[in-house]
Amino acid sequence: MKNEHRITWVSGTASGFYIDFETQTIGYSDKEVHLEYLQTRLLRFMLSSTGGFVTSHDISTDSELFSINLSKYIHGIKTKILSLLKTSDDDDSDALFDQIIEKKTINGKRGYRLRTELTDVLDDVTSEVKEDKPLEPVAGPDEAKRDMPSFRRYMSNNWLALFIYLFLVLCTVLLLDSVHITAEYLLIKIIDIPFGFTFIALCILSMLPVIGGLFVDVPLALKEYEKKKGVKKNDLNAEKIHEIAMNLVPRFDNSGEHVIFFSLCNITGAFTVASELLYIKSIPGIYEYLSDPSRDYFYIVTIAAGCFVALFNNYSLQTSKSPTRCEDDFILTRVHAFLNLIYLSVSLALGCSLAYTFLSYRFFHNSNAVVITPAYIVMILSMYCYLWFSSDSPAAKQIDSVSKNNFLSGLPVLAAFTTVYTFLCFTPDLVCILSILTAPVFLLLWFACLIRRKKENTIKLHYFVSSFFSILAIAIIVMLLLNFRW
What we know:
The protein has helices at residues 37-48, 56-59, 70-85, 90-98, 150-178, 183-192, 195-229, 238-248, 256-281, 286-290, 296-319, 335-364, 374-391, 394-398, 406-424, 430-456, 461-466, 468-482, and strands spanning 6-8, 18-20, 25-28, 31-34, 101-106, 109-114. By secondary structure, the chain is mainly alpha-helical. β2 and β3 (25-28) form a beta hairpin.
């Protein structure tokens, strides 16, 4: 008699793998791994679902599963399954996992289903009912590069775009040098521009990658799919358009969750840089301080650090494994990816230079006139909010943001620097008191996030050093320490 509490894969490359719901275990080739209760409950829910793919909306109707993060739990299950199916090739392991749990985007939400057609489950438990002809993947040249080491694959996919990026940087350097504009003088000119113009320019620049993704990358993906598969755009619904643009002809994830996160993250970053500019404008004597060319190479280093982090961000998006991202979406030949590299290079380089300016001015210059203004509080709050939103917010977790360690690594450093700076510039007024109180409030949130990450066992020491914020912070700190020699 068939065991009703156990399913076994009887065909496919994962043949022999089983899930035992009674003992809450999974097994393969004489090895077993224990599952958590909610992990087992989720697999049972997927097995009993007659609608095919299960999304976060589906599990929200279940009394036990309504509060879980679906992608996170699937990732946990995947880790345990791969510990059983592990081979010498990680890509082979992923292929084996795909034989057990299939993923697909349903109306902009990530959905998962058990591959019951490969198991000994009776026909009353069905997989997805396909009313239309299923979409087929478009094989491309990128498929042959999957077995390459990460860095070689990155360079192979991006060499032309990286060449263009480097060429643009060199052209900018030559142009500035030809008119005798140093980094400090350029910063003076940017600060001197009316704030409204710089704010609007930063906001527009931050939204260009999203616009490029929606109105260039998605149509290009559809056009290529139509050409190769003979499918008309008018015959595709929103779900199929998303599947084509994200996975089948990977160019851009146009799901609502990703577009909203992408937009808010970039606009918050632009707002942070704009608030730095507004505060710098309020510092008396800042123009005279920047007129001294002796610190020019300090700014060159901080600008280079900003450009490096922008490239590192793109590299991480293409090389880090994720259950919710397609790494080919971020190849720099995609319009949104290249525009985002330009935006990050500008915003990070400018933001890094401005932070170094107001810190070095107060710490190493005759700057008793430095005051704390409301723009300073806006700057601090926007920095805190940007760190949290881009790395540890529910939206960041849902799309598995590559910036997920920035909040943990960056907030203590940011709180320490801003608190010291505030006390050095302290005047007994409401603005200073409010700026001091922001640090302990956000440190409480940071501590809660740290405890949660420790319980989830998702934190390691190297995360603190390798985060994007840490690289920028180290560059600024080194430049500040070098000021002691002058």
